TrEMBL record:
The keyword Zinc applies. Its main location: nucleus. One of its GO terms (molecular function) is metal ion binding. It comes from Crotophaga sulcirostris (Groove-billed ani). GO terms for biological process: axonogenesis; neuron fate specification; positive regulation of transcription by RNA polymerase II. Coiled coil: none annotated. Residues 5-67, 68-129 form the LIM zinc-binding domain. Keywords: Developmental protein, LIM domain, Metal-binding, Zinc. One of its GO terms (cellular component) is nucleus. PROSITE patterns: LIM_DOMAIN_1, LIM_DOMAIN_2. It is found in: Nucleus. It comes from the Eukaryota. This is ISL2 protein. The gene is Isl2.
Amino acid sequence: RPGLARCAGCGGRIQDPFLLRVSPDLEWHVACLKCAECGQPLDETCTCFLRDGKAYCKRDYSRLFAVKCAQCRAAFSSSDLVMRAREHVYHLECFRCAACGRQLLPGDQFCLRERDLLCRADHGPPLDGSAARGARSP
Protein backbone atom coordinates (compact mmCIF):
# COMPACT_ATOMS: atom_id res chain seq x y z
CA ARG A 1 0.00 0.00 0.00
CA PRO A 2 1.68 3.20 -1.13
CA GLY A 3 2.43 5.61 1.69
CA LEU A 4 2.35 2.98 4.45
CA ALA A 5 5.21 0.75 3.41
CA ARG A 6 8.82 1.44 4.37
CA CYS A 7 11.61 0.69 1.91
CA ALA A 8 13.94 -2.08 3.08
CA GLY A 9 16.75 -0.37 1.16
CA CYS A 10 16.65 3.27 2.27
CA GLY A 11 14.16 3.10 5.15
CA GLY A 12 11.98 5.82 3.67
CA ARG A 13 8.23 5.71 3.12
CA ILE A 14 7.20 4.33 -0.26
CA GLN A 15 4.95 7.00 -1.81
CA ASP A 16 5.48 5.73 -5.37
CA PRO A 17 2.61 4.12 -7.25
CA PHE A 18 4.74 0.98 -7.61
CA LEU A 19 6.91 -0.93 -5.20
CA LEU A 20 8.88 -4.17 -5.38
CA ARG A 21 8.12 -6.88 -2.85
CA VAL A 22 11.03 -9.32 -2.52
CA SER A 23 9.68 -11.50 0.23
CA PRO A 24 6.40 -11.39 2.12
CA ASP A 25 7.67 -8.74 4.52
CA LEU A 26 10.25 -6.71 2.54
CA GLU A 27 9.23 -3.94 0.18
CA TRP A 28 11.51 -1.63 -1.82
CA HIS A 29 11.38 1.53 -3.91
CA VAL A 30 11.95 0.48 -7.50
CA ALA A 31 15.11 2.63 -7.54
CA CYS A 32 16.46 1.21 -4.25
CA LEU A 33 16.42 -2.49 -5.12
CA LYS A 34 19.96 -3.05 -6.38
CA CYS A 35 22.56 -5.75 -5.94
CA ALA A 36 24.56 -4.97 -2.80
CA GLU A 37 27.73 -6.14 -4.55
CA CYS A 38 27.66 -4.84 -8.15
CA GLY A 39 24.82 -2.27 -8.02
CA GLN A 40 22.80 -3.88 -10.83
CA PRO A 41 19.15 -2.81 -10.62
CA LEU A 42 16.97 -5.73 -9.55
CA ASP A 43 13.41 -5.68 -10.82
CA GLU A 44 10.68 -8.07 -11.86
CA THR A 45 12.76 -9.25 -14.84
CA CYS A 46 15.68 -10.75 -12.92
CA THR A 47 16.19 -13.13 -10.03
CA CYS A 48 16.95 -11.58 -6.66
CA PHE A 49 18.52 -13.30 -3.65
CA LEU A 50 18.47 -12.04 -0.06
CA ARG A 51 21.06 -12.64 2.63
CA ASP A 52 21.40 -10.78 5.93
CA GLY A 53 18.94 -8.11 4.75
CA LYS A 54 20.90 -7.37 1.56
CA ALA A 55 19.78 -8.11 -2.00
CA TYR A 56 22.09 -9.72 -4.56
CA CYS A 57 21.92 -10.58 -8.23
CA LYS A 58 22.19 -14.29 -9.05
CA ARG A 59 25.79 -14.04 -10.26
CA ASP A 60 27.11 -12.29 -7.14
CA TYR A 61 25.06 -14.40 -4.73
CA SER A 62 26.47 -17.56 -6.29
CA ARG A 63 30.02 -16.20 -6.29
CA LEU A 64 29.85 -15.07 -2.66
CA PHE A 65 27.69 -17.67 -0.91
CA ALA A 66 27.24 -20.83 -2.99
CA VAL A 67 28.78 -24.09 -1.83
CA LYS A 68 31.85 -24.74 -3.93
CA CYS A 69 33.72 -27.93 -4.79
CA ALA A 70 36.58 -28.54 -2.35
CA GLN A 71 38.82 -29.60 -5.26
CA CYS A 72 38.15 -27.30 -8.24
CA ARG A 73 36.47 -24.44 -6.24
CA ALA A 74 33.67 -24.14 -8.85
CA ALA A 75 30.06 -23.73 -7.70
CA PHE A 76 27.57 -26.54 -8.15
CA SER A 77 24.59 -26.42 -10.45
CA SER A 78 21.25 -27.78 -9.26
CA SER A 79 21.68 -30.88 -11.46
CA ASP A 80 25.18 -31.81 -10.23
CA LEU A 81 25.65 -35.06 -8.35
CA VAL A 82 28.07 -34.62 -5.46
CA MET A 83 30.22 -36.61 -3.04
CA ARG A 84 30.75 -35.52 0.55
CA ALA A 85 33.65 -36.11 2.94
CA ARG A 86 33.08 -34.51 6.34
CA GLU A 87 32.30 -30.84 5.64
CA HIS A 88 33.77 -30.94 2.11
CA VAL A 89 31.64 -31.34 -1.02
CA TYR A 90 33.03 -32.47 -4.41
CA HIS A 91 31.86 -32.86 -7.99
CA LEU A 92 31.84 -36.57 -8.88
CA GLU A 93 34.71 -36.07 -11.31
CA CYS A 94 36.73 -34.16 -8.68
CA PHE A 95 36.38 -36.88 -6.03
CA ARG A 96 39.80 -38.41 -6.76
CA CYS A 97 42.81 -39.69 -4.86
CA ALA A 98 45.38 -36.90 -4.53
CA ALA A 99 48.26 -39.39 -4.84
CA CYS A 100 47.29 -41.62 -7.79
CA GLY A 101 44.41 -39.69 -9.39
CA ARG A 102 41.98 -42.64 -9.29
CA GLN A 103 38.33 -41.56 -9.15
CA LEU A 104 36.75 -42.64 -5.88
CA LEU A 105 33.33 -44.22 -6.20
CA PRO A 106 30.52 -44.70 -3.68
CA GLY A 107 31.54 -47.50 -1.31
CA ASP A 108 35.29 -47.01 -1.83
CA GLN A 109 37.33 -46.61 1.33
CA PHE A 110 39.33 -43.42 1.48
CA CYS A 111 41.05 -41.12 3.92
CA LEU A 112 40.74 -37.36 4.13
CA ARG A 113 43.94 -35.67 5.25
CA GLU A 114 43.42 -31.94 5.50
CA ARG A 115 41.99 -31.23 2.00
CA ASP A 116 43.50 -34.29 0.27
CA LEU A 117 41.51 -37.42 -0.50
CA LEU A 118 43.56 -40.61 -0.51
CA CYS A 119 42.37 -44.01 -1.74
CA ARG A 120 42.86 -47.06 0.49
CA ALA A 121 46.00 -48.11 -1.40
CA ASP A 122 47.61 -44.72 -0.83
CA HIS A 123 46.60 -44.14 2.79
CA GLY A 124 47.56 -47.58 4.14
CA PRO A 125 45.79 -49.57 6.84
CA PRO A 126 42.69 -48.25 8.60
CA LEU A 127 43.38 -45.63 11.22
CA ASP A 128 41.48 -47.61 13.90
CA GLY A 129 44.20 -50.29 13.91
CA SER A 130 41.86 -53.15 12.90
CA ALA A 131 44.25 -54.41 10.20
CA ALA A 132 47.20 -54.37 12.60
CA ARG A 133 45.62 -56.74 15.13
CA GLY A 134 46.80 -59.89 13.37
CA ALA A 135 50.34 -58.74 12.63
CA ARG A 136 52.76 -57.03 14.90
CA SER A 137 53.94 -53.79 13.45
CA PRO A 138 55.62 -50.74 14.94
